[in-house]
Design brief:
By secondary structure, the chain is α+β, with helices and mostly antiparallel strands. It folds into three domains: about 110 residues, Alpha-Beta Plaits, CATH 3.30.70.1050; about 180 residues, Trigger factor, domain 2, CATH 1.10.3120; about 100 residues, Chitinase A, domain 3 (Roll), CATH 3.10.50. It is built from 15 helices and eleven strands. The strands form three sheets. Strands 6, 7, 8, 9 and 10 form a five-stranded antiparallel β-sheet that branches. A hairpin with a 2-residue loop joins strand 1 and strand 2. Helix 1 packs across helix 2, helix 3 crosses helix 9 and helix 12 packs across helix 13.
């Protein structure tokens, strides 16, 4: 068995796998004898079927199965041994007919792979913001804690200090009953969600207002405040949603005392308002800094994507698109798809190159730890800062039952490790900044 490469250029080649009959003959004969021992054919006792009859019926299928396995193994081993980072998958050359009785067989595969290049992170520089929480943000975080453990106060009508519970359902058109009926969505809002609050503030309990799909598509703020993503709006099956007020109430905020401190952070962890503010500031600073670090990394990656030249195996990719997608029926169509995806493909190659060159690897423990952190972050948004580890682990394990979540979280883990490498090796232009100023930078 042998694999030879005929290079088309520095990023594509024809790999030819050549098998001698002796490479697979012995295994084929062994399987034929096993078939003969166990075959049950009318007119013959079990194990007494003539080998010639078994050979005539099964030899070709067994031989081609073994040939395919050996060709696949040889191809994969060659790619691994040569450390080729493939772009797309190998495309087999058309074969009119393989003769399994021939003394030698050859099968060709077109392959495309990433070019050899290196990235010097030290030559890239970007602003690295040091973001500090303001007194306003600290107080707002503490107020959110007080709201979480507040006493609900009944109200006659919605007021500026009201918390409003909403039920959101799709309006099913007449004649469409039973088609795409979805469970209602329940959310809670207050006056900080201005667009959503303005939508319902004149309503009483069980009164509702309808919003068209078009309005959601054109009002990003309202869409976000009603807890819809852009993708969810695009996939709504009906033309309207109905927003119903289920309840509203005021809040008597929990007092800033030891009871609240213990509920939020655990018994005895915080013992004064001063300690609470210091703790909250530390948490906010850490959270803001994480965002600032990501901003720095994104700036560096954008520069790398702009300045680094990456030669793509375009001729191969056109063939691969036509081979792998039955809906791509012409070379022109494949070229259009490639042109649209070219920049994203380049970005993926650059990202993969950075991860490979810096020996970044993922394992399940990393993914689970990231899922647990996501759970803690989500709970913290609702003022829940102290939950037993076993509860957090349970939520994280449930999250990882969803393969899409696993894929997404794995990507986040990989990017987190790459982030650490870029933070260490790229050049930082340190700048102190308030959180409000940082948000303005993000808008740019």
């Amino acid at each position: 068995m042998n694999v030879t490469a005929t290079n088309h250029d520095e990023v594509s080649a024809l790999l030819t796998v050549t098998l001698d009959k002796s490479d697979y003959k012995e295994k084929v004969e062994k399987q034929l004898h096993n078939y003969a021992k166990n075959a049950q054919v009318p007119g013959f006792r079990k194990g007494k079927v003539p080998l010639s009859m078994i050979r005539k019926q099964y030899e070709a299928g067994i031989a081609f199965e073994e040939i395919n396995k050996q060709v696949s193994d040889a191809l994969n081993n060659y790619v691994t041994d040569k450390k080729l980072r493939l772009v797309g998958q190998p495309v087999p050359q058309p074969v009119e007919e393989l003769d399994h009785n021939a003394e030698q067989l050859s099968v060709g595969f077109e392959v495309g792979y990433e070019p050899e290049f290196s990235i010097d992170l030290a030559k890239y520089e970007a602003p690295h913001f040091k973001v500090e929480a303001s007194e306003k943000e600290i107080n707002q975080s503490i107020e959110n804690m007080q709201k979480r453990f507040a006493e609900q106060v009944p109200q006659e009508e919605i007021a500026e200090d009201s918390t409003v519970a909403l039920e959101i359902s799709q309006v099913v058109e007449e004649g469409a009953e039973g088609e795409h009926n979805h469970a209602p969505k329940n959310i809670t809002i207050d006056a900080t969600r201005k667009a959503a609050f303005d939508l319902v503030k004149s309503l009483k309990k069980e009164e509702s207002v309808k919003v068209s799909k078009a309005d959601l598509e054109n009002n990003e703020e309202l869409t976000k405040e009603l807890s819809f993503s852009k993708e969810e709006v695009e996939h709504l099956h009906h033309d309207q949603i109905e927003v119903t007020v289920k309840d509203f109430f005021g809040l008597n905020l929990a007092e800033l005392n030891q009871d609240l401190f213990d509920k939020v952070y655990g018994e005895g962890t915080i013992t004064s308002e001063e300690e609470l503010k210091e703790k909250v500031k530390t948490e906010l600073d850490e959270y803001f800094q994480q965002n600032a670090d990501v901003h720095f990394v994104n700036k560096v990656l954008a520069q790398i994507n702009e300045k680094e030249e990456v030669k793509l195996p375009e001729t191969f990719l056109v063939k691969w698109l036509m081979f792998s997608n039955e809906h791509v029926t012409s070379e022109e169509q494949a070229k259009e798809i490639l042109e649209a995806e070219k920049n994203q493909l380049k970005y993926q190659i650059l990202e993969g190159k950075l991860m490979n060159d810096n020996d970044i690897k993922l394992d399940y423990a990393d993914v689970l730890a990231q899922a647990e952190q996501l759970v803690r972050n989500q709970l913290a948004m609702y003022g829940i800062h102290h939950l037993p580890d076993e509860e957090v682990q349970k939520y994280a394990a449930d999250m990882l039952k969803d393969q899409e979540q696993v894929r997404q979280i794995s990507g986040e883990v990989g990017m987190a490790k790459l982030k650490d490498v870029i933070l260490e090796k790229a050049t930082k232009k340190e700048t102190k900044i308030s959180h409000d100023e940082f948000l303005e930078e993000l808008k740019k």
